[in-house]
Amino acid sequence: MTPRSGRQIRISLAGYEAVIASIGASLRQLRYEGRDLVVPFEADEVRPGYRGTTLAPWPNRVVEGAYEFGGQRHQLALTEPERGQALHGLLCWADFSERFADSDRVELAAIIEPQAGYPFRIEVTVEYRVGPDGLRQTVTARNVGADTAPWGTGPHPYLVAGDGRVDDWTLTLPASQVLTVTPDRLSPVAVEPISAHSEWDFRTPRAIDAVFIDHAFTGLERMDRIAEVRLEAPGGTGVAMAWDERCPWVQVHTADTPDAAATHRIGLAVEPMTCPPDAFNSGTDLVVLEPGDAHAASWRISAI
After folding, report:
1. What is the rounded CA–CA span in Å between residue 212 and residue 63?
2. pLDDT per residue over 155-176, tens digit each?
3. pLDDT in tens, 87-97
């Protein structure tokens, strides 16, 4: 029988080993020389939340699931009912098909069919490739429909630095701005200087300790066009995530689940994004795909 998380594709090279589950084109496991770099889950398990999935055609939230595009108003299903939001796109539970698989690379594909709230047809391909510099994921969207479509994407891994939990690890987050949100529904409020919110200022590496984070950051400092978030454990191990200007935003979340001790702060979600939360309404950094157009974005996870 097919495992609950879908078909399993294993790729490896240069000490890296990744397992991709076909449901949601999810990164189920990533290890370097036997050490976890992301919080894994079991093959025959309904994927816990959004752990490792591919977010498309929008990352994060569309407030109240409602937006206007092309002069038409659309209403998405509220997949975060406790907050009344449409969360993380439409492909999280789609079963992707394999287009290509080799020992170090796999390409999967799915089509977003026109539906209530998103009447556009988008072909989405997801490539995972391992090499000496880590695991690279590339998400490519192609508008194969007749109408112009809004688009955004990002990943949802929970990074693991080594022994311990989020509180024990040191974070480097080179962001000069943060998007503040409402405390109850996490709806966007305003982009503000990180200097006004010292609790979330990790431009200088420091321990996360008990700080709660569930925010989008921008104003990213880059070296050779690349932004990098680093997470390091006291024992000297760590994990880094890097991406280029096609993702001007990154969501960071400390995975707080106080009612479930087994998963409470066991990994740090780091989600490079092509657009901020609720971009379908704000239009900020929203990708607009004309019929026939394509858009690609990628990011890399590597061991420290």
Report:
1. 22
2. 999 999 999 999 999 999 999 9
3. 999 999 999 99
Give the Cα separation of 103 and 223 in Å (integer): 31
**DSSP secondary structure, 163-229, as one string:** SS-GGGSEEE--EEEEEEE-TTT--EEEEEEGGG-GGG--SS-EE-TT---EEEEEEE--BTTBEEE
Q: Which domains does the chain have, with CATH numbers?
A: 8-303 (2.70.98.10)
258 C-beta neighbours (distance < 10 Å), count: 7
Locus of tokens 């935003």:
249
Q: Are 164 and 279 in contact (CB under 8 A)?
A: no
- CB-neighbour burial class of residue 178 (10 A; exposed 0-12, middle 13-18, buried 19+): buried
Residue 259 pLDDT class (50, 70, 90 cuts): confident
For 234-248, what is each residue's pLDDT tens digit?
Answer: 999 999 999 999 999
The contacts of residue 299 (CB under 8 Å, 6+ apart) are 136, 137, 155, 241, 242, 243, 247, 272
Token code pair at residue 171: 């974070």
Q: Is 280 helix (H, G, I), strand (E, B) or coil?
A: helix
Write down the residue that tokens 């200088």 correspond to: 204
